[in-house]
Specification:
By secondary structure, this protein is mainly β. It has no helices and ten strands. It has a six-stranded mixed beta sheet with strand order 2-10-9-4-5-6, with no helix packed on it. A four-stranded antiparallel beta sheet has the order 1-3-8-7, with no helix packed on it.
Length: 113
């Protein structure tokens, strides 16, 4: 199993970024996928998840209305569109196959004030 995140970077408050997670080594379309984040000095927290066919999504209250999770099962990729970014969104963002031991290495998102 391999999960590779990309798309992080430095952005100003109010800006947008789209994160991608390319998955391989398993039947991607059969699994719920999640995005987590870990702000500096804080524990990892769930940001959003999406069911296998993309029919259901779930978001942390802190990102509802600003972030959108989506997936393309033909490309084995899950996305996180992040809009109206705030400094509190600064974190390393991780892709995770739900209820498994599999995590990506993360991509850093830094939001400047």
């Amino acid at each position: 199993v391999h999960l590779v995140e990309s798309g992080g970077g430095l952005v100003q408050t109010g800006g947008s970024l789209r994160l991608s997670c390319a998955a391989s080594g398993f039947a991607f379309s059969s699994y719920t996928m999640s995005w987590y984040r870990q702000p500096p000095g804080q524990p990892r927290e769930l940001v959003a998840d999406i069911t296998s066919a993309g029919g259901n999504t779930n978001y942390a209250d802190s990102v509802k209305g600003r972030f959108t999770i989506s997936r393309d099962n033909a490309k084995n990729t899950v996305y996180l569109q992040m809009n109206s970014l705030k400094p509190d969104d600064t974190a390393v963002y991780y892709c995770h196959r739900r209820l498994s031991i599999y995590w990506g290495k993360g991509t850093l998102v830094t939001v400047s004030s």
